[in-house]
Amino acid sequence: MLIWAKLNHQNIARLYNYSTNPLFHEIEYCGKNLKEVYNSIKSEERIFKIIFDVSEGLKHAHTRNILHRNLTSANVMFDGRDAKISNWYCARYVNRVSRDLQKPYSKYLAPEMILKKKEGFYTDIWQLGVLFYELTTGRVPFNNKDEILNIKVVHPYEIINKCLSKRRKRRYQSVEDFQNDLKALINEKYENFVENKEMFKGISYCCDLLLICLKNNDGVNAYKYLDDLIEYVDNNSIKEDLKHLKESIKYRLENHIPIPKEIIYNAEIITHKIKLVK
């Protein structure tokens, strides 16, 4: 649990306090786990948002050379708005061997975990793919270890197929690569809504794309999505908030200043308002 205590991120459930003797832990309350609620998550846009949230939590851990190793729908908490990774009991540092406080759930095991081979960031990527598949279809892609080792997955999202490649080197090697393809998929959906003049549906995707760009310090594309939102949002108060946000992004682009957390937090509030009133 010492590893978990070192992680502090918006998409990771906080471990506030713990002891091994006597055994107890105090964890942030983050709603229900996805296994309890995923049948009620019907929106494709909501699924993309959850998966991006989870990938953000993984990215934070991976920058610290930490693997989760037990990423399942039971270990991701969801409060209706944000997803947070919990239960880091199987976590370990890359290239280090340590005793698991609990065994990883078998239906999510990556092939290298079953075969006792080297694990890496690609191991968490595999489990992220299983989670993506489960949220999309309502079931996990494999029911036992034999199915995992004799993988045959056909799914419309190439992203999931790449995550679930049996060969480690064919998977995404970083969360950033995964996020780039997820952003491209969301953008494709968004552009289809724009082309078909279905902006009621498209606005939510545009909000998500804005936040993805801001969190990845992509001010140029964030500026573009802000332009779109200003055009499509009817609420004058929110429109003014978007214009102020746009000016803040413009200033940082012109002066080559990274996007701070305060702007991201402000954008999260604004986009939440947009989704409530659209």
TrEMBL record:
Provide a Gene Ontology MF annotation, just one: ATP binding
Q: Locate the Protein kinase domain: which residues?
A: 1-211
Protein keywords: ATP-binding, Kinase, Nucleotide-binding, Transferase
Keyword hit for Transport: no
This protein is called: Serine/threonine-protein kinase-like domain protein
